[in-house]
Amino acid sequence: MGLFPRLGPWFVGRWHRAYQESADAVALSAVRRDGDGGEEVVGFLIGATDRAAFLRELVTRHRNALLVRGALALALRPGVLARFARTRIRPYLRRLRNAERSSTQEQGARIADLAAIVIVPPLRGSGAGSALVAEFLRRCAAAGASAAELVTASGSSGAAGFYARTGWMDMGGLVTRDGVQVQRFRRLTAETAED
Length: 195
What we know:
The protein is α+β, with helices and mostly antiparallel strands. The chain has a single domain, classed as Gcn5-related N-acetyltransferase (GNAT) (Aminopeptidase), CATH 3.40.630.30. It has helices at residues 3-6, 9-21, 51-60, 63-76, 78-87, 89-102, 128-142, 160-165, 190-194, and strands at 25-33, 39-48, 111-119, 147-153, 169-175, 181-188. Helix 3 (51-60) packs across helix 6. It holds the Pfam family Acetyltransf_10. GO terms for molecular function: acyltransferase activity, transferring groups other than amino-acyl groups.
């Protein structure tokens, strides 16, 4: 959902790697083992245990690599470039400036951000997604995050029902710059320890 997937796998792979390399983020995999000792990745989750700290890291440590890959992807995709110029360039530049300025300012409560979760379609409903989310919330609580937040597409294309069933509080909807209706969810990380 959103701009990043339209930039292609070369950009998305680098964006995912930022989560793998960060002390303020997690990248988890769900693996299915067969009887012969083989393993197959059936899902993954990426998220930040501290959204503000991870954003600062993105715009300092990973900015150049993401900018180069993003620029090349936009150059190869003129339609995506036109939409980016129309809907996102000003807000992105503003966020870059603000993130750099706020890097030395005092930060408030740690809020985690579940950025993406994917489970292969045949195994949806198997518990793999719930296990990934539970582990993510456990790590967020251990890192000192008081709550975790996420955004998912509304309706049948999103996972709103999954989050509502698994204890996330619906914080209402909004429409993205791409015209997609999304739902925002929040969950206190301390609830994980009680489950």
